[in-house]
Amino acid sequence: MKKILKFSLLLLLSLSITACINIFKRTDLRPENISEMSNETKARQLLKEMGEAHHIEVWDKMETYNVIFGEEFYGSLGERGNPFSEPKMELSMNYIPKTFNGTLEVLSGKDKGDKWGIQNWKTYEVSSEGIEEKKNKDMTFWIPTYQYFIEFPLRIQEATAVEYLGSKQINGVEVEGVLASWNTVEPQKDIDQYIVWMNKETKRIVKIGYTVRDMFRFITGAAYFNNYKEFDGVLLPTEFPVESNLLREGYLHKMSIKEFHLNPLKKEDLLPLK
Question: Would you state the torsion angle of the CA atoms of residues 60, 265, 115, 260, taken in this order, to the nearest 10 degrees?
Answer without folding.
Answer: -60
